[in-house]
Amino acid sequence: MNKYLQDLIKLSKFDTAISMFEPKIENEKAKLATFVETAATIKASINSIYLEVDDVKSKRTKNNIHLAELKTKLENIAKKNKDVHNEKELKALQLEEEIAKEQIAFANEEIDRLDNLAKNKEATLKELQEKLAAEEEDIKEIQVAVDNTIEEINKERNVVYQERSELLEKFDNKILTFYEKIKRWAKDSAVVPVKKQACYGCFMKINDKTYAEVIKAEEIINCPHCGRILYKEAEELEA
Ligand SMILES: [Zn+2]
User: Fold this and answer.
1) Could you tell me the distance, in angstroms and rounded to a whole number, from the CA of residue 211 to the centre of ligand 1?
2) CA 222 to centroid of ligand 1, rounded, Å
3) CB 163, CB 186: distance < 8 Å
4) What is the pLDDT of residue 81?
């Protein structure tokens, strides 16, 4: 096989490998991002439930103050009861007492309701905090796994960079410029195999004459349709 063509195939394979590293790393980071997002959602729920609990507790305090006021009122009514002068005053006082007692009953019911509400919210809070702790534990584990994988990917990447730069040291300049011109539009498919007598860049059939030249591999052959550099893979030649 033409030496330049051999170099081009190698270079193209290195470049393709290099383009694959970044998506691989992004993919690893994305694994972690899902867990981090879940943890953030749980944290937001916890914060809003804290505010709700505060609100319930402040309502309960207000009811307690109200209850104390009503009790004082009842005491005052009891005192007034001693110096009632007539039936009319007595009835008015009884009505006042009745209303105060109703209000006390209502305030007590409200306090019970608020206590239950706070209890439920605090139970939810506890569940969410446990969930968050588990999630954060998972994040730690995944972080370690992701960091290790990324480190491996970076090692591989350094090897490919090293091999690529070694290859470029003895690379023909004209051939490199030629390759880079095609690469500008063809990206990672500047050098493509021919399979079933078709260019694997544009997927069009190539004529018998060009195909024969590709198989011979004595020269660098471009696809007559798209201009990509063509080669025949060794394994396929043997088959
Ligand atoms: Zn083509």
Assistant:
1) 12
2) 8
3) no
4) 87
Asked if the 18-169 domain carries CATH number 3.30.470.20, the reply is no
**Distance from residue 165's CA to the centre of ligand 1 (Å):** 28
Q: What CA–CA distance (Å, rounded) separates 147 from 137?
A: 16
| 163 Cβ contact list (under 8 Å, min separation 6) | 14
Tokens of 129: 């905090």
Give Cβ neighbours of residue 159 (< 8 Å, ≥ 6 apart).
none
Instruction: Tell me, in angstroms, the distance from the centre of ligand 1 to residue 194's CA.
Output: 9
Task: For the chain, give every domain's residue range.
Answer: 18-169, 173-238
Residue 202 Cα to ligand 1 midpoint, Å, equals 4
The answer to whether 39 touches 132, Cβ cutoff 8 Å, is yes
pTM for this prediction: 0.71
Q: How far is the CA of 186 from the centre of ligand 1 (A)?
A: 10
From residue 80, how far is each of 73, 87, 110, 129, 199 by CA, in Å? 10, 14, 29, 54, 107
Place of tokens 């994040």: 139
Could you report the per-residue pLDDT of 161-212, keeping only the tens digit for each? 999 999 999 999 999 999 999 999 999 999 999 999 999 999 999 999 999 9
Say how far apart CA 46 and CA 127 lie, in whole Å.
10
